[in-house]
Design brief:
This protein is of the alpha+beta class. It has 15 helices and 13 strands. The longest helix has 18 residues.
Length: 425
């Protein structure tokens, strides 16, 4: 069980979240910097994130930074750019053993926090630009990452479907930007993007593990307070996606044997998030779901069929791997299952199965500092921050009627298919 969860503001637009559980042997620190996509180039920001974990002024190449991490009993530091709540999330993440396990009394937590600050606040740069060699290497990595999406057809289908489902919105494009944008990134433009992130982002620092993290809090408070910041994001939360006047249909064709179907339903006005969460589970989010039982097993229409909710966008996403000839039948089968819940609700047995499976999954969150950290980071979009147990308690009161009422609010928004070049419907 968690001994402590505390949250406080430590600088302008900077919040420190402490999660202490004495069972763990390691500590994890996550610094998430949130900015609006419209304000900065996606590729510039993505490359800047890459550069921050490659080296810094104190350790000017990757081998020296790696050696410093090895000295901390094989600690690690990584960076990433992603989309969360329709905003860019630039992250730097570090982990290390707790001080109790240092053989010579080293202060591992303090050293990790200070090393993360060296990367975040003092990158290898000069005259308002990142190092040219570092920029060149990171640009190549960024382009490789963008290009790799097409080789993973599930990821590619999700990317292309989002372009139709969320057209005109922040998540229409991937957080890393396009290949063309990546080719235009310069050492100067990436560094300018980095400085704007540092100076304007809403910052959420999470420290999870067995420590009290007092030194970590002091280190980051000092570093952020030394910057002339003007945070432009006052709150984190949901931005529902607009429902189209009529469903949009799109497809791509490649040299492939199977096909992927993705269907997006939207309900921008949904308020009952607990019932909405269980609806997606019962439809296609567990091994006894309706999609698995009725569409895959009974009708043999697909290799897999599942669903999830995007709480931020108030969207229900259903996806399936199918034979091309089964596209229409699978689409109709998914619609039929949703219509049935709209008309008849769900059974007590289905609700019980969903709750039991979720209870097991939520217990597993407590097994790692990373799991707890991600849970509480996700909770920032809620009106109230709840522990996994507390959230599970809110699900206990969900009834069939509530799930039916939520299902009735959804309308079909987008249907996307990725299929073979010569496939016929």
């Amino acid at each position: 069980m968690i001994d402590i969860f505390e949250r406080k503001q430590i600088a302008d637009g900077v919040f420190f979240n402490r999660i202490t559980d004495r069972r763990f042997k390691a500590n994890r620190i996550n610094v998430s910097l949130f900015t609006e996509f419209e304000a900065l180039s996606r590729a510039d920001c993505a490359l800047a994130a890459y550069a921050l974990s490659e080296c810094c002024a104190l350790y000017p190449d990757y081998s020296k930074l790696s050696a410093a991490l090895l000295d901390l009993y094989d600690a690690s530091i990584s960076t990433a750019t992603s989309s969360r709540w329709n905003m860019r999330c630039t992250e730097i993440v570090g982990s290390a053993l707790d001080d109790r396990y240092a053989l010579s009394g080293e202060k591992l937590e303090r050293e990790l926090a200070q090393l993360m600050c060296e990367c975040l606040f003092r990158p290898k740069a000069e005259n308002g630009a990142f190092d040219e060699k570092v920029t060149e290497m990171m640009r190549a990595e960024l382009i490789d990452s963008i290009d790799s999406v097409i080789n993973d057809k599930s990821r590619y289908a999700a990317y292309r479907a989002a372009q139709t489902a969320y057209i005109g919105e922040a998540d229409e494009l991937p957080p890393t930007g396009s290949r063309e944008d990546a080719l235009k990134v310069t050492a100067k433009s990436a560094f300018e993007a980095y400085r704007k992130i540092l100076e304007t982002a809403r910052v959420e620092i999470f420290a999870a593990g067995c420590s009290d993290f007092k030194e970590t809090e002091e280190i980051f408070a000092r570093e952020f307070s030394a910057i002339n910041r003007s945070c432009t994001i006052t709150e984190l939360g949901c931005k529902p996606s607009a429902l189209k006047e009529k469903p949009a249909y799109a497809e791509d064709r490649f040299d492939m044997q199977q096909a992927i179907l993705r269907m997006y339903f939207k309900a921008p006005e949904i308020k009952d998030l607990e019932a909405n969460f269980l609806l997606a589970r019962i439809l296609g989010g567990m091994t006894t779901s309706r999609f698995f039982t009725n569409i895959r097993e009974k009708q043999s229409l697909c290799y897999y069929c599942a669903s999830f909710t995007d709480r931020s966008k108030r969207a229900l996403v259903c996806y399936a791997g199918i034979e091309p000839k089964n596209k229409k039948r699978t689409e109709e089968a998914i619609l039929k299952e949703l219509r049935d819940i709209c008309e008849n609700g769900v059974t007590d047995e289905e609700i019980l199965s969903a709750k039991l499976e979720l209870r097991t999954q939520y217990k597993a969150i407590y097994d790692s500092a990373a799991g707890l950290l991600q849970w509480y980071l996700t909770m920032l979009a809620n009106e109230k921050i709840l522990s996994p147990e507390e959230f599970m308690e809110t699900l206990e009161s969900v009834t069939s009627d509530r799930i039916r009422d939520v299902a009735r609010q959804y309308s079909l928004d987008t249907v996307y298919t990725l299929c073979g070049k010569d496939d016929e419907e």
